[in-house]
Amino acid sequence: MFSRTCEHAIRAVIYVSCQSAKGKRCGIAEISVAVDAPESFTAKILQDLVKKGLMGSAKGPKGGFYLTQEMSECSMADVVRAIDGEHLFEGCALGLRQCSEKRPCPLHHEFKKIRSEIRTMLEHSRLGAFSDNLTNKIAFLKR
């Protein structure tokens, strides 16, 4: 459903959000280990999210990646759009370019409903909302 890059971005944002809720900033190495992703790959993803305003970063001994309260209010859909664009919300289930209401693929009508439900879920999922589940070990980020 999500690209590999987007999966890593979501996991990294959730992890950083959890640490930010505790007043901590995280370095690349820590985030990479926590979300089970290569360090260089994680660094590129996080730099992109910082550029797009979904995450903050600071250099120096007390530096690292973090989410402000305002950033924590962004939706998971914002992260998906920042990394994968609108494809998840508008694309064809079979990857066809010409799929539309007038010329639907075999899965078009059912997938349209699923896409809508996914969009709604992601739009309503705030980045800062996952901290408690991770802290209480109700949810996990590693495979």
TrEMBL record:
InterPro entries: TR_Rrf2-type_CS, Tscrpt_reg_Rrf2, WH-like_DNA-bd_sf, WH_DNA-bd_sf. It comes from Rurimicrobium arvi. This is Rrf2 family transcriptional regulator. Signal peptide: none annotated. Pfam families: Rrf2.
